[in-house]
Amino acid sequence: MTVTIKDVAREAKVSVASVSRALNGAGGVTTATEKRIREAAARLRYVPHGAARSLITRRTHTIGALLPDLHGEFFSELIRGIDQKARAHGLHLLVSSAHDGVDDAAAALRAMQGRVDGILILSSRVDEAFLKANLPQDLPAVLLNSPLEDGTHAVLNIDNFAGTYAMVRHLLGVGHERIAFVTGPKDNFDAQQREQGFRAAMAEFMPNASPRIVAGDFTERSGLRAGRELLAAKSRPQAVFAANDMMAVGCLQAFREAGLDVPGDIALAGFDDIPIARYVAPPLSTVRVRIADLGRNAMELLADLIERPGPSAASVHTLGCDIVVRDSCGAHLARNASGGNRRSSDP
Amino acid sequence: MTVTIKDVAREAKVSVASVSRALNGAGGVTTATEKRIREAAARLRYVPHGAARSLITRRTHTIGALLPDLHGEFFSELIRGIDQKARAHGLHLLVSSAHDGVDDAAAALRAMQGRVDGILILSSRVDEAFLKANLPQDLPAVLLNSPLEDGTHAVLNIDNFAGTYAMVRHLLGVGHERIAFVTGPKDNFDAQQREQGFRAAMAEFMPNASPRIVAGDFTERSGLRAGRELLAAKSRPQAVFAANDMMAVGCLQAFREAGLDVPGDIALAGFDDIPIARYVAPPLSTVRVRIADLGRNAMELLADLIERPGPSAASVHTLGCDIVVRDSCGAHLARNASGGNRRSSDP
DNA sequence: GCGAGCAACGTAAACGTTTTCATCAAAGCT
DNA sequence: AGCTTTGATGAAAACGTTTACGTTGCTCGC
């Protein structure tokens, strides 16, 4: 029932070869016959069989995205960016999300085998051995937010280090000296980098201070716990910097419980700029990650790898982030808010 | 240098037919030879070429999801539900999102032609003519949140009507009599149904009242405007029900501007239960849509259509929603909160 | 012990493209 | 005019599977 290239050929009174050439713009056909062929194809509503085509072409015009169990804005923005660029390159997007187990991800990766021209991987669980075992070495791949720099795959990371660094500088500039930090999960790459950025900035700007660092795990509850813990200490920090916004929201709740005014009594900052950050009271100062850009850049990188493959595959890129100053950090109270690079405020 | 079925056949010293049979579990092979074949395949890291397979099988084991320009939780939850069920059925997920123009969506739909076994469509822009023109009539399809009941496609809708209806009943039960409604965009199907639900409930329970209805467009700004407009009127409503949460947040801001206490001076409710709803002050009472369930059910429906195609394709299903009572509606103030079905509160 | 039946296995066609190669006509060159 | 070049077109091979159809050898019932 489906109409094939043969039907078009018959309809246009040419050979299948000419139809193929005409429709692919490969040249070698008169404009007259091309027109006739195009008309015949349109009349018959011919649409080439993708599988047959990619069987011989060895190109699927599809890229795969292997993603962990993401939620909310992060997921949608990432896909938005990827999809946008993919479409620009004429590529389809095969999504496989919600992989938390390693074997789960491995299965998904293998299932994508041969269905995609390239692959985008975002997962904390992948290490070098995993990739070696499950990723065909000739399949173009871009790793997102990965600690791996094995020199065989392209990697695109968020510049967590610079982001925290800039935020610390900003907080110091506002006048806060005793800054405490709430970390993310120990095994999370982003969390590690953010902690390092914090330590580095403090070490540089306040070499004599030994800032308080309490453990969190990126959840609101852990933020609440951390906030309480910080208040329980004898000397209260002047500012608290949480490694992500959800924990900052938790801290906020702890401070509210204690009857503290934010930022009057204690300043607060987060990381990620999730939508909620804008709506809590006071609005949360944070570090914005342009997630759609992350997706876009990753896709661009991958498209490049696909279009001209070669040994230049290995490369490491970083995507900067901006600090966004709202009320919770106290900058709008301070007489002169100096310091901090690439700052921005909501309109 | 990819390894094909022939390589496996040679390695296992059998014919390609046997390899195919063994690997597909089609029977007709001794357990001994099957074992030998499986081992050979494993040794060679053989993975069948999907395109070649689907060329002859006419099955791609992939379903397409055509989505509009969605944001945040809605998108990610929907995909989560779809992906979960898709995987359970051994299907891959081809996503094409961010289609705002009709021609854009049409192009995407045609591009999916032959790459998918079935398709999931969520778009306010598709009408019957569009589907007729761009959707092959033999391709299984499920329409989400669509007003279409053309008897040719399966449709799965959120029960917006029942949701608003229940919320109105709840608000009345709490003691609010003058309830105003803020509508969504006129051309949005969900918005239309919600408005209808509101009108129906009011007509039934307060037949003599003529409730205030002001226009919004689902944005926070339009909610702010609507809130101001409602306060400007001579008789202030006792409760405002916004057709979605973002507009409710806008209303909240308007009320705050006016120095009103929510819910003391005026009650407020929204629809959707976006994550922000829980974090505004006071927390917003709203109607929860279990979006992941929507995705799951849609996928289940589609899988069914694919597995046993037939004239039974047309069907209309509805997914209920729950009202979640937080502080903004005033139920926690009232002495006895009665009315409202399927209520729930946050733990 | 012998034909029938059956299970295991192999051969080859088919799926719908792209692409190489050959063919052929027209046009350009001397 | 004769030869070469060029450009359009067609025939057929190839891509890697699945599957219908044969072929083989074995078992079973008599």
Structure description:
- Two copies of one chain form a homodimer.
- The first copy, chain A, has 347 residues and is an alpha/beta fold.
- Chain A has three domains: 5-48, lambda repressor-like DNA-binding domains (434 Repressor (Amino-terminal Domain)); 62-158 and 291-319, Response regulator (Rossmann fold, 3-Layer(aba) Sandwich); 160-289 and 323-344, Rossmann fold, CATH 3.40.50.2300.
- The first copy, chain A, has twelve helices and 13 strands.
- The first copy, chain A, has helices at 5-12, 16-24, 31-44, 50-57, 72-88, 102-112, 128-134, 160-174, 189-205, 220-232, 245-257, 291-307, and strands at 62-66, 92-96, 118-122, 141-144, 154-158, 179-182, 213-214, 239-242, 267-269, 286-288, 315-319, 322-324, 343-344.
- Chains A and B meet through α4, α5, β2 and α6 of A and α4, α5, β2 and α6 of B.
- β2 of chain A pairs antiparallel with β2 (92-96) of chain B.
- Chain A binds a DNA duplex (30 and 30 nucleotides) through α2 and α4.
How are the strands of the largest sheet of chain A arranged? 2-1-3-4-5-11
Name given to the CATH architecture of the largest domain in chain A: 3-Layer(aba) Sandwich
Number of structurally distinct domains of chain A: 3
Alpha carbon gap, first and last residue of chain A:
58 Å
Detail the poorly predicted runs of chain A: 335-343
Radius of gyration of chain A: 26 Å
Question: Could you say which overall geometry of chain A the principal axes of the C-alpha atoms support?
Answer: elongated
Structural class of chain A: alpha/beta
* Strand-residue proportion of chain A: 5-15%
Helix fraction of chain A, binned, reads 40-55%
The major sheet of chain A is characterized as: 6 strands, parallel
Could you give the count of β-strands of chain A?
13
CATH topology of the largest domain in chain A: Rossmann fold
Largest interface: A-B, 44 and 45 residues
- SSE topology string of chain A: HHHHEHEHEHEEHEHEHEHEEHEEE
Name the average pLDDT of chain A: 89
Please identify which CATH superfamily of the largest domain in chain A we are dealing with. Answer: Response regulator
